[in-house]
Amino acid sequence: MFLARARHHVGFLIGAVLTGLMGLMALISLVWTPHDPVGMAVRNRFASPSWEHWLGTDHFGRDTLSLLMVGAQNSITVGLVAVGIGLLVGVPLGVLAAARRGWVDEVLGRTVDLTFAFPAILSAVLITALMGPGSINSIIAIGIFNIAVFARVARAAALQVQGREFVRAALALGRSRLDVALRHILPNMASALVVQATIQFAIAILAEAALSYLGLGTQPPQPSWGKMLFDAQNFMFLDWRQAVVPGVTIALAVLGLNLLGDGLRDLLDPRLRIMRVG
């Protein structure tokens, strides 16, 4: 049923293709790249695209396609771990706040409001500036922001599910709140969490690229899309491709994940399906 509807959702299909290509590029780079991504050949710098270097070379003579492929590994790793942190910490906090209400809900709400006072990238810049640059600190910084996002989404979804009859019936039968949360609340809020996870994944990729561009994220010699943009800005008039290629790649990756998230929202939310049919 889901696959039948998905085949007719253009946005979902485009998002799935773009996201799949990004994942495929990262997987292939685990076992093969056209050249050593950190191997320098200064005499061959700024080479034009050819059969040997499909996307040319940068100012150090490194193969641009190889850098792009390995950079996809870094972006996906940061996105997965940062979103995982948000899910593992934020969802239990949100469900707990919805179940207990009172001062627990109030404390969580004010903390989330404080976190949302700073944009994701600004929060990540602040944390990495205090903790020091590096991939690990980037993941922690982005993950902390994700905790607040998933806590708010989980709380809202849990409050909506808690008001349904089957949850009230389970509580009336004497089941513990923990058992009700695991058996009834979490499964019924899974679709909202999946959609939010794809959106936060895109934000995490964008934040990691911004941090690497500012020198606070992934450090050399590890390739990164943001670092490729930073390196290329000084050579725009010598070889514009070195800036356009990683910039377009980041844009397509973020666009794909956003389209995938919007498509999943349309396909998983029955109310949106009814509105579209109507």
How would you describe this protein?
- This protein is mostly helical.
- It has one domain: Orthogonal Bundle (MetI-like fold).
- It contains twelve helices and no strands.
- It has helices at 2-6, 10-31, 64-100, 102-116, 120-131, 135-162, 165-172, 177-188, 190-213, 225-232, 241-268, 270-277.
- The longest helix has 37 residues, at 64-100.
- It is elongated and about 75 Å long.
- The model is unreliable at 274-278 (pLDDT under 50).
Mean of all residue-level pLDDT scores: 87
Give the terminus-to-terminus CA distance.
19 Å
Order of helices and strands: HHHHHHHHHHHH
Count of domain modules: 1
Strand content: under 5%
CATH architecture: Orthogonal Bundle
Number of helices: 12
Radius of gyration: 22 Å
Specify the overall morphology.
elongated
Could you name the CATH topology? Answer: MetI-like fold
CATH first level: which class?
A: Mainly Alpha
Helix content: over 70%
Could you tell me the number of beta strands?
0
Summarize the main sheet: none
The CATH homology group name: MetI-like
Structural class based on helices, strands and sheet pairing: mainly alpha
Strand and helix map with partners:
Elements: H1 2-6, H2 10-31, H3 64-100, H4 102-116, H5 120-131, H6 135-162, H7 165-172, H8 177-188, H9 190-213, H10 225-232, H11 241-268, H12 270-277
List the keywords.
single chain, about 280 residues, mainly alpha, MetI-like fold, 12 helices
Short description:
Helices cover 74% and strands 0% of the residues. With 278 residues, the chain is mainly alpha-helical.
